[in-house]
Amino acid sequence: MADIAADGPFSAFPGVERWFVVLSGTGVSLAFPGGDRVIRAGDPPLRFDGGAAPGCRLLEGPTRDLNLMLRDSSGVMEQVDPGVAWGPGLVHRGLFTAVAGRWSRAGEVRRLGAHSLLWEDVSDAGDWRFEPDDPGVRVPGWWLGLATDNVPVPVR
Question: Do domains 2-71 and 74-147 have the same CATH topology?
């Protein structure tokens, strides 16, 4: 997680695949050579080259954001669909919760608080599910996945 309190450029991370979402606040406008991209809380994750270092302009005040940054691999960041199984063939997978709820996998259940990170080396232990305590929340969390050159990232 990162807090953005003022306009300015993102740090450059050459050779890094970067995923970005706004957790709270109104959002940001990122200036890329091909045009600006506005990202607001609740929008799908934005994937871009970490070396791009786009300029960042706050829309209406500070934001809190989540980044997934991967070097020498590829990955995926997807919004959680409550109760829907998630478990693509990845080397590592994780869950970042926006709200409290219940994670489950093949009979195993864990209570997770808001802004928790659950991470594992993938095994054949089954698909993951997340049920937020508040079923009306728009985005309860994000699935995070890491692949290697030998294991492509599944596309859903």
Answer: yes
